[in-house]
Amino acid sequence: MGWNEIVGGFLSLINFAKNLILIIEKLLLMAPKMVFYFIYIITTPGKVISDAIYGFTTGIKMILKSIVDILMGKSVGLLNLHVKDDDSNNKKQKRDTEECVNPSLLEILILLLCPPLAIFIRKGLKGFFTIVITAVLTYYYYLPGLVYASLYVL
Prior knowledge:
154 residues, two-stranded antiparallel sheet, 6 helices, 2 strands, 6% strand
C-alpha cells in the first residue's frame, strides 16, 4: 500500500465529512419549517385533509384536461376569442385559426427522439394522416421522417 492510496483515502474521508456537514446544515435550516408544519398538521387536521383532497382532485382534473386537449389537438393552437366592433357597435366573438407558437425545448427533444409523437402532441388526432406518413417515413429511414415532422412542428 503506497502513500498515494493513504492520502487519497484520507482526502475522501475529509470530502465525506464536509458533505455530511453541509447536509446537517441544510437539515437544521429546514427544522423551523418542519416544526411549523408538524404543529399545523396536529392543530388543524380537518384543514389539512381538506387541502389534500382539493389538491388531489385539482391535479387529476388538470391531468385529464391536458390529455383531452392533446387528443383533440388543442395543446398548442388553443382557439383565441377576439372581440370586434361592427358598424352597428355590436360586439361579436370571432374564432381565429391556430396561431404560430414557437416550439419548446421539450417539443424539440421529442421531435428528435420520435417524430410521429411530436406531430401527435402538436396536432392530436386531427393530424392522423400526417402522423401515419411521418411514422412510415421514420420507419424506413429516420432522416426523411424527421424532416417531414420538422415542417409541422418547427
